[in-house]
Amino acid sequence: MTRRRLALCSAVLVAALVPGGTRALAAPEIAGIAVDTGTLALRCGAVWDAAGGHRRGPIAIVADKGRIVSIQPDGSALRPGETDLRGETCLPGLIDAHTHVMLESDRLEGDYDAQLLKASPEYRTIVGVGHAGRLLQWGFTAVRDLGAEGGGWGDLAVRDAIDRGMVSGPRMQVATQAIVATSAYPLLGYAPGVSVPVGAEQITGADEGRRAVRAQIGRGADVIKLYADRGPRLGADGSVQSVPTLTPDELRAIIGEAHRQGRKAAVNARSAQSARDATDAGADSIEHGDYLDADNIAAMARRGVYYVPDFDTDASISARRAAGGNAVWRAMPQIKCATLARAVRGGVKVAFGSGIGGADWSYNPAAAFAPMAACGMTVAQILTSATLGSARLMGIDDRVGSLEPGKLADVIAVPGEPLSDISVLQRVSFVAKGGVVHRVTGKPVKSGGE
Fold first, then answer.
1. Could you tell me which residues come within 8 angstroms of residue 343 by beta carbon, excluding any fewer than 6 positions away?
2. Is the pTM of this model over 0.85?
3. Could you list the residue ranges forming a coiled coil in this record (predicted)?
4. pLDDT tens column, 340-397
5. How far is CA 80 from the centre of its chain?
6. Which of 311, 239, 305, 256 is CA-nearest to residue 276?
7. CATH of 94-394, one of 1.10.287.1260, 3.20.20.140, 1.10.260.40, 3.20.20.70
8. Which residues have CB under 8 Å from 93's CB, separation 6+?
């Protein structure tokens, strides 16, 4: 690449990412989402989605201008231009309702600090673009990204560059900076005279909470993220205990303002008390929810609050954190597994979230499906949580989450039968988002601004 061409590419990227920069010409859009204007024809060996269940094929899926127009059995000879997926199962694009594309890893105590202290927001935005592209290649065509974690407003730039067709990635809902109680979130523990960045916006009092919500929505936040507690520890009864940070009044003010402005509120709550406070305040989802008791589960089921358990894709994370001396991390896998089983039995709606970004990006979020199955969820329940369930939580189920005529053509394919071997979801061979093919025969397809 010549210097002139490199400079031109850099200028275009900066213009796309910087607010107020020159807008690139975009493909036609549907509700802010760039889509294909041509026809997509697939021949699948089988189809699964939460709306229609498992359907054996061959089945033809046809999309036009980014939307599915027909799904029907078709055992005829393959037609010219049709993509042959007859040895594979087609599913809706996966949806991860808890990601952090601006984080590279948060496995150990020093990982988070190093990113906030040593990596510029500009660098982390570029890293976020790469992470978003990886998620799409893994088959995740939509994500809810819950906090830039000290990365400024870079998640907005990543979302907008994807929507404009400048770079590849899933469609994104972003939380921007998230909201925490003053002095209750990293970076912590530095000398009093040393000024350090904080991974979320700090507030004290209901009025400051409302102001933060308004400011974040004004910047472009799609969802409001709150941290309701800190310092998880192991209780004498084997539960997870924590220190509540935001008061009930602050929680009600923040969540109420989010709802008043048409945004949902996602609340990180690791203990039963924090989850209770968040549910009582009107939270739309409880994130992590490491320990939920019977009262939590009954209240969440009654009020329709989603549980996003954020199972670690890297099973070694808890062990590494336990090595730092906090016994809760040694017990966490078993505690969380029991909580998920209770929640499913209790009728709580589950949306899939991996928390990727906390785990290393060498781990595919779909690796979390196996431990969820080990905790008692059926494969169909897990796949529903990672498609239609997450779409409903995000309020986009009218467009994505299932394979139905009229919906956007977000389609993936995997070898074999996922209902009998859920690990095949880690080997996605085909990805189309809005009718645009991004992966075929297991290899990326160069398109758009790539």
1. 289, 292, 297, 300, 307, 309, 350
2. yes
3. none
4. 999 999 999 999 999 999 888 988 999 999 999 999 999 999 999 999 999 999 999 9
5. 36
6. 305
7. 3.20.20.140
8. 139, 140, 141, 142, 170, 387, 400, 410, 411, 412, 431, 432, 433
